[in-house]
């Protein structure tokens, strides 16, 4: 794709030592928009432009909206993004800086999405933040890049929000005939996939809570649930405090600031919640953190007594 980049694959000495294995960090935080969403959204936007789109409509809790706004700017296409009230001002400002129209509506992404869909017409194309094949195709390229660098992972650890990341990674693993565990990490207040796994049915949460607002989908996409039922997906939940502690440790260890949604993944490694072996090559998706600042992370440490 034109508007995403090949991201670094870094072996983490600290996390490898802690977990007695080889931990490989896929640094999606280094994308131009600060998250893996640039792969998914970038691919979808390009596909729709090829089909004649002249305006983009989307809904987002943060990172997807930032990428749609960015793509609109580089493709010279107007963009409207509807975000819920939980979206950080930092994320909204980044969308506005790319020239997008941003509308704040509703208490959750579901509310924002309903309004966004009402704006769709023959000329304005809807860019779903997590539920479309174009998105998963873009994400699957992450696995292509890892394999090209000579690493065949024995496990993947990633965060789950709406489900585009796990859907795309699963697709990439299948392409390369890798039947390996995927550890799906959510915060306690956003655990729509983990709840679905435990109940064995695709459920919608009554509400989503906590600071990991970019994970705050009440229901994962059907493809993500299907992946969890047909593959070796192992769900874990972590607290908001654990995510913040992981963000701070990662900043110290790797000089990279990531948001709590990404800290959720990192926390299970810092807290050694998964048992690995010395020969394991563990792929960790560092999904990003465009909408976080150090000041905000510091406020979370006070609020959560981290």
TrEMBL record:
Spans through the membrane: none
Domain Tryptophan synthase beta chain-like PALP: 6-288
GO biological-process terms attached to the record: isoleucine biosynthetic process; L-serine catabolic process; L-threonine catabolic process
Top-level class of the enzyme under EC nomenclature: lyase
E.C. code: 4.3.1.17
Catalytic reaction equation(s): L-serine = pyruvate + NH4(+)
Cofactor: pyridoxal 5'-phosphate
InterPro entries, A to Z: Ser/Thr_Dehydratase, TrpB-like_PALP, TrpB-like_PALP_sf
Superkingdom of origin organism: Bacteria
PANTHER family referenced in this protein's UniProt entry, alphabetically: CATABOLIC L-SERINE_THREONINE DEHYDRATASE, THREONINE DEHYDRATASE, MITOCHONDRIAL-RELATED
Family under the similarity heading: Belongs to the serine/threonine dehydratase family.
Stated name of the protein: L-serine ammonia-lyase
Organism of provenance: Acinetobacter venetianus (strain ATCC 31012 / DSM 23050 / BCRC 14357 / CCUG 45561 / CIP 110063 / KCTC 2702 / LMG 19082 / RAG-1)
Phylogenetic placement of the source organism: Bacteria, Pseudomonadati, Pseudomonadota, Gammaproteobacteria, Moraxellales
């Amino acid at each position: 794709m034109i508007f995403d980049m090949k991201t670094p694959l870094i072996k983490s000495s600290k996390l490898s030592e802690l977990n007695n294995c080889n931990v490989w960090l896929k640094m999606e935080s280094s994308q131009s928009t600060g998250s893996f969403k640039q792969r998914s959204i970038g691919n979808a936007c390009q596909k729709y432009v090829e089909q004649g789109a002249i305006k983009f409509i989307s809904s987002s809790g943060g990172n997807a909206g930032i990428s749609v706004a960015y793509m609109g700017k580089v493709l010279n296409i107007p963009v409207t993004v509807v975000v819920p009230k939980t979206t950080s001002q930092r994320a909204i400002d980044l969308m506005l800086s790319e020239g997008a129209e941003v509308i704040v509506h509703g208490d959750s992404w579901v509310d924002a999405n309903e309004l966004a869909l009402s704006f769709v017409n023959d000329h304005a194309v809807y860019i779903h933040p997590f539920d479309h094949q174009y998105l998963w195709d873009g994400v699957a390229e992450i696995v292509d890049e890892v394999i090209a660098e000579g690493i065949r992972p024995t496990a993947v650890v990633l965060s789950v929000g709406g489900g585009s990341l796990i859907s795309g990674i699963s697709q990439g693993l299948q392409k390369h005939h890798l039947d390996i565990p995927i550890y799906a990490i959510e915060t306690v207040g956003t655990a729509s996939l983990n709840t679905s796994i435990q109940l064995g049915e695709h459920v919608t949460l009554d509400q989503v809570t906590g600071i990991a607002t970019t994970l705050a989908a009440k229901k994962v996409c059907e493809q993500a649930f299907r992946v969890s039922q047909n593959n070796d997906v192992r769900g874990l939940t972590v607290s908001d405090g654990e995510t913040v502690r992981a963000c701070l440790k990662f900043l110290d260890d790797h000089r990279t600031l990531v948001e709590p949604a990404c800290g959720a993944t990192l926390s299970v490694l810092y807290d050694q919640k998964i048992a690995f072996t010395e020969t394991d090559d563990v792929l960790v998706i560092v999904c990003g953190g465009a909408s976080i600042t150090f000041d905000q992370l510091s406020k979370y440490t006070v609020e959560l007594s981290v």
